[in-house]
From TrEMBL:
Annotated positions binding a peptide: 137-139, 264-269, 554-556
Keywords: Aminopeptidase, Cytoplasm, Hydrolase, Metal-binding, Metalloprotease, Protease, Zinc
Record-stated family: Belongs to the peptidase M1 family.
Co-factor requirement: Zn(2+)
Name under which the protein is recorded: Aminopeptidase N
Pfam families cross-referenced by the UniProt entry: Leuk-A4-hydro_C, Peptidase_M1, Peptidase_M1_N
Chain ranges of the Peptidase M1 leukotriene A4 hydrolase/aminopeptidase C-terminal domain: 460-598
Entry's transmembrane regions: none
Catalytic activity: Release of an N-terminal amino acid, Xaa-|-Yaa- from a peptide, amide or arylamide. Xaa is preferably Ala, but may be most amino acids including Pro (slow action). When a terminal hydrophobic residue is followed by a prolyl residue, the two may be released as an intact Xaa-Pro dipeptide
Co-factor remark: Binds 1 zinc ion per subunit.
UniProt GO MF annotations: alanyl aminopeptidase activity; metallopeptidase activity; zinc ion binding
GO CC, one annotated term: cytoplasm
Keyword presence, Protease: yes
Length: 603
């Protein structure tokens, strides 16, 4: 076991964990849907380095109402002085708490505000049921909007929680979870493995649970649960495949929670309870690579965590590579090759969009002074994966797999920054293979723009057949005569992406008549189809576009659609009308980007 790294200076946190750090949280909250607030207290057990004489604990908060701070626990603690630093619209404020030299715990009594950015409060009509719903999204630095904490991924802690909710609703957390309602609405949770604040999670709604195996299962609203059970039937084989690749699953249970469609991401890897979007419920298990991705985070991200958000690629690059290895194990290499090709296309598009010389195309980012969500691009995901794919190409899979498995084992429940990873990579792999470091050209990947020239080619035999079908259609073969019967969702997305720019409305009508794109229930297909309809001003898709944007909050889908609207002569006014109707259904993670793009609608 290696010595844990000291948390580095984090540009996105006011905390000073090298002086005093948090190690265990006891959280007591009451969930109030009427006022859309959480209220209660957080008791932090503290840890100090040997010889520390620090007299101040610094926590991160943003838009929290701090009512009192006590030295000790919530029952016997005594009041102490605290001050709030200047407010910053991204970082929030520093909560500075006066300590005595012998202080081992502090309690903060507080409440959230209705506009807390991490909290999405949904009315019953915004759900699949008849009850309201609450979910959190703490990544990257939004935990501080519902919990006073050291909101840095380099700080880990265990936690326990007591949560009071309305009696007909079920609360869940990134912890041990209930599987049935309690009549008094009081629930207790424990997370015995240390996690960073961004993995704190809470959801409350009309939820039911069904087991898939002794350690896996699905939570969802009753109307959604049967479809979810069918879609995720291979969850246990996924976990087994992941363990076979890179070592034991260390979090006890692996359950999924299917959220309402306003969830801004495809998934969120909250330990023990992955949050997933209902947009992956395609009916044919064709979009479950997203679940493989969130599962892979149980190793890369949750187990070994990026020390700061400048090191985000260490979470996501490993996870994308791991995800595709899981999918290859379950469905074969040709299937995984399709995922790699789709990711590669997304990477090329992102590099072109950001700019081939931009420092934002480096793996190691410099996000100081910016919202770390600006680093949540395909660079961290796909360029990070591409680096590992290049390493696999140079050293071979067996050697790379041994390295990755040992990396997760040696650094379990610790953080990792880019410099430390580079050192570890040299010591454990590159130095063992003469000439490998020169061939890899690591500095070009980490601190260079774009895609280095030593990246191996990416190809998919199944996509080659799709590309041939596109060419056949362009040469005059009617769409309804193309051989598409065995295509997966990925092949349909590839087909739509490969269509030439500037298709006329009549051409789209032919494709629509043959394949029913506008009426598709598959969100990935719709998200690829609707930009084409916007560009061609294809009237039959107008209602589908309105429905999609006002129902779905997944940022990956909606942001490109609004950008597509802006390319039209009347696009800004049209986009603003749609956004005004859709914005109440979106999480703050999405609205923060769209407000800047479109201007916030008038209240």
């Amino acid at each position: 076991m290696t010595t844990p790294l000291l948390p580095p200076t984090d540009p996105h946190s006011h905390a000073r964990p090298a002086e005093v750090s948090v190690r265990h949280l006891a959280l007591d909250l009451r969930v109030d849907f009427t006022t859309q607030t959480l209220a209660g207290h957080a008791t932090w057990q503290l840890s100090r380095p040997a010889g520390s004489t620090a007299t101040e604990l610094v926590l991160d908060i943003r838009d929290l109402m701090v009512e009192a701070v006590l030295l000790g626990d919530s029952t016997a603690g005594e009041p102490t002085e605290f001050t709030l630093g200047d407010a910053d619209h991204v970082l929030g404020q520093a909560l500075r708490i006066r300590l005595r030299p012998d202080t081992t715990a502090v309690t903060i009594r507080y409440r959230t505000t209705p506009g807390a950015a991490a909290l999405q409060w949904l009315r019953p009509e915004q759900t699949a049921g008849t009850q309201p719903f609450l979910f959190t999204q703490s990544q990257a630095i939004l935990a501080r909007t519902w919990l006073p904490c050291q909101d840095s991924p380099g700080v880990r802690f265990t936690y326990e929680a007591r949560v009071q909710v309305p009696a007909d609703l079920l609360p869940l957390m990134s912890a041990s979870n209930p599987q049935q309602l309690r009549s008094d609405g009081r629930y207790e949770f424990r997370m015995d493995q240390p996690i960073p604040a961004y993995l704190m999670a809470l959801a409350v709604g009309e939820l039911e649970f069904r087991a898939l195996s002794p350690r896996t299962g699905v939570y969802a609203e009753p109307a959604t649960l049967p479809k979810a059970m069918a879609e995720f039937g291979e969850l246990e084989p996924m976990v087994a495949a992941a363990e076979d690749l890179y070592g034991p699953y260390r979090w006890e249970r692996y359950d999924l929670l299917v959220l309402p469609p306003s969830f801004p991401f495809g998934g969120m890897e909250n330990p023990r309870l992955t949050f997933v979007t209902p947009t992956i419920l395609a009916g044919d298990r064709s979009l479950t690579s997203l679940v493989a991705h969130e599962l892979a985070h149980s190793w890369s991200g949750n187990l070994v965590t990026n020390a700061t958000w400048n090191d985000f690629w260490l979470n996501e690059g490993f996870t994308v590579y791991f995800e595709r290895r899981i999918m290859e194990r379950l469905y074969g290499r040709p299937y995984a090759d399709m995922l790699q090709a789709l990711g590669h296309a997304a990477l090329l598009h992102t590099v072109q969009e950001i700019g081939t010389a931009s420092p934002d195309t480096h793996l190691r980012l410099n996000l100081a002074g910016r919202d770390p969500d600006e680093g949540l691009t395909e660079i961290a995901y796909e360029k990070g994966d591409y680096l590992l794919l290049t390493l696999e190409h140079l050293v071979g899979r067996p050697a790379l797999d041994t390295f990755i498995k040992e990396y997760f084992a040696r650094h379990a429940f610790q953080s990792m920054d880019t410099d430390s990873f580079i050192t570890y990579l040299h010591e454990q792999l590159l130095n063992e293979h003469p000439g490998l470091a020169a061939k890899l050209r690591l500095a070009e990947w980490i601190d260079g723009p774009g895609i280095p020239g030593n990246a191996p080619p990416v190809a998919s035999a199944r996509f080659a057949a799709v590309d041939a079908a596109v060419a056949t259609w362009q040469q005059g073969t009617p769409a309804n005569q193309l051989n598409t019967a065995a295509w997966s969702s990925h092949e349909w997305v590839r087909f739509l992406h490969q269509l030439p720019a500037g298709l006329a409305s009549g051409q789209l009508a032919e494709l629509d008549a043959a394949f029913g794109f506008t009426q598709s229930g598959n969100a990935e297909i719709l998200a690829a189809w609707l930009p084409l309809t916007i560009a061609a001003d294809y009237a039959p898709a107008e209602a589908a576009l309105h429905d999609f944007l006002t129902r779905v909050g997944r940022r990956k889908f909606i942001l490109p659609l609004y950008k597509a609207l802006l390319t039209r002569p009347d696009g800004l006014a049209r986009a603003r009308r749609l956004y005004a109707a859709a914005r109440p259904n979106y999480h703050a993670v999405a609205t923060s980007t769209l407000d800047a793009l479109l201007g916030r609608p008038a209240e």
